[in-house]
């Protein structure tokens, strides 16, 4: 864990909630001097302190440890069968957020029911004709293509 990563994570959590470090100390039952160590020295928490902070923040322990940099995301992963329905949805959401930036944005149109886009194919590009039209043209040209000369055609 990088020095101060735990505090950086905590500081973000406190800001989201409008809390001061003293509020966290009271809610988690952790001394203010311990929180000061986390802030000033970049000290990591013990597991019991991390658990107390997670409970005070209303956050699950494992995602808190990942967010704080104490666990790598891969270390926190389990087989999907091990998750409750809520945890599974959260895990799917987290995995989706990981891969979304890796997908190139190619101006893909998504199906809609608007008049300007009557359920176009997802792969249609605004700069070319729809794939449906291209495919229909290909089918038509293959159907109109004359048979090759050979034994079956009598040639």
From TrEMBL:
This is Transcriptional regulator with XRE-family HTH domain. Residues 134-148 have a biased composition (Basic and acidic residues). It holds the Pfam family HTH_3. GO terms for molecular function: DNA binding. It comes from the Bacteria. Residues 10-64 form the HTH cro/C1-type domain. InterPro entries: Cro/C1-type_HTH, Lambda_DNA-bd_dom_sf. Residues 106-155 are annotated as: Disordered.
